[in-house]
Amino acid sequence: MTNVKAYGTGAPDALLAEMNINRRAVLANDIEIEILYCGVCHSDLHFAKNDWGMTTYPVVPGHEIVGRVTNVGSAATKLKVGDFAAVGCLVDSCRTCSSCKNDLEQYCLNGWVGTYGGFDKHLNQPTHGGYSQKIVVDENFVLKVPANLDLAAVAPLLCAGITTWSPLRHWNVGKGTKVAVVGLGGLGHMAIKLAKGLGADVTLFSRTPGKEKDALDLGADQVILSTDELQMASVAGKFDVIIDTVPYVHDINPYVATLAIDGTLVLVGYLGGLDPILNTVPMIMGRKSVAASLIGGIAETQEMLDFCGQHNIVSEIELIQIQDINKAYERMLKSDVRYRFVIDMASLK
Ligand code: NAP
Ligand code: ZN
Predict the structure, then answer these.
(1) Mutation test residue for ligand 1: of 246, 250, 300, 338, the one with most atoms within 8 Å of CB
(2) Which residues, including other chains, have CB under 8 Å from residue 332's CB and lie 6 or more apart?
(3) Which helix (H) or strand (E) holds 262?
(4) Rg of the Cα atoms in the chain
């Protein structure tokens, strides 16, 4: 067991501050990674503030991890000391259930182990995330980083990237598919880039005037101000797939109206009951679906990283010091991020 520095919080209303955590000793199949960069996901903020009512404290967030391998277990063969490596939202699962056997570890029937907020059965302690100096992870849950990409800008691919990639792939997005993305934040900007990379025709729905130029620069073909009824009406019945990344309760009925026959709206942002309620009439009249999706499996995450390597896709980032994490959370709450904060972990000395 090693003791490392981390940043976390002991209560929902407390600021994040420096603390010490334990990492397990490197087991035969493990890889130890010195963390170089960690992305800041809105889920980190939800978790630190116990928005989902499932946080046990202290919590050390961070599941968009990129670093350098510093030690490998005796049976680990995937990477060697000195290689770059990445870790996303999952660090273990049962590996035997039908979901795990089908590369869907995120839907493990016996409960997957989150990078933070999970339980490390080897250490017999809760798991802690990437706002820390080092992490020890089974090699089956470690990803390889394409050599041509900027390391800091790769970090957000490990959650924002895979969370939008997985539904784009599952709902067969390809050349000419009409895709819309709701919300231009961390997930939203990756959804635009990845959908565009797959050849789709991409529209952004944003409630924020002033993000149009950025969205077009990111690859969107069109931007619709969701607060403008005339603009909303102009895209009625248009989209095959909508990826909704909004983190808080909101009315999804206006977006269902923009689905084509057989279209699917995929919720990836908000977790909880819908308000106002979902009207099934337009769904029944057009065989439309409202679905949801959780991150992605390990094989699919590697597929996404390789795709990003081939297409030169990375996140748009603002690099911050760990000491600025509380300010970053405040700005994220105001949607004042263009478009992902990434922590330079060298600042945690
Ligand atoms: P983010 O960077 O804060 O972006 C969210 C965007 O949603 C904002 O930029 C804003 O875009 C829009 N928005 C924010 N508040 C809104 C509100 N009250 N009403 C309408 N629109 C609002 O967040 P993120 O990191 O992309 O995460 C988005 C959500 O996905 C979070 O809830 C996070 O926990 C969740 N998440 C889910 C998964 C999964 O597996 N399903 C994985 C990762 C994250 P505009 O200004 O353009 O409107
Ligand atoms: Zn995340």
Answers:
(1) 246
(2) 40, 42, 45, 185, 341
(3) strand 259-267
(4) 20
The alpha carbon of 132 and the centre of ligand 2 are apart by a number of angstroms equal to 16
Question: How many Å lie between the centroid of ligand 2 and the Cα of residue 174?
Answer: 25
**CB-CB contact of 160 with 38 (8 Å):** no
Strand partners, 79: none
**Tokens describing residue 30:** 């493990």
C-alpha to C-alpha distance for 286 and 84, rounded to whole angstroms? 47
Question: pLDDT tens digit string along 77-120?
Answer: 999 999 999 999 999 999 999 999 999 999 999 999 999 999 99
The answer to whether 62 touches 115, Cβ cutoff 8 Å, is yes
Say if CB 143 and CB 302 are below 8 A apart: yes
Q: Which atom of ligand 1 is nearest to the CA of 332?
A: 3
- Residue 267 Cα to ligand 1 midpoint, Å, equals 11
User: What was the pLDDT predicted at 120?
Assistant: 97
In the chain, the domains with their CATH numbers are 2-159+296-347 (3.90.180.10), 161-292 (3.40.50.720)
Segments of the chain scoring below 70 in pLDDT = none
- Residues, the chain, total? 349
Between the two ends of the chain, the Cα-to-Cα distance in Å is 20
CA 169 to CA 202: how far, in whole Å? 15
Q: Give pLDDT tens digits for 199-253.
A: 999 999 999 999 999 999 999 999 999 999 999 999 999 999 999 999 999 999 9
The residues lining ligand 1, judged by C-beta closer than 6 Å to any ligand atom, are 41-43, 46, 159-160, 163, 183-188, 206-208, 211, 245-248, 250, 268-269, 293-295, 332, 335, 337
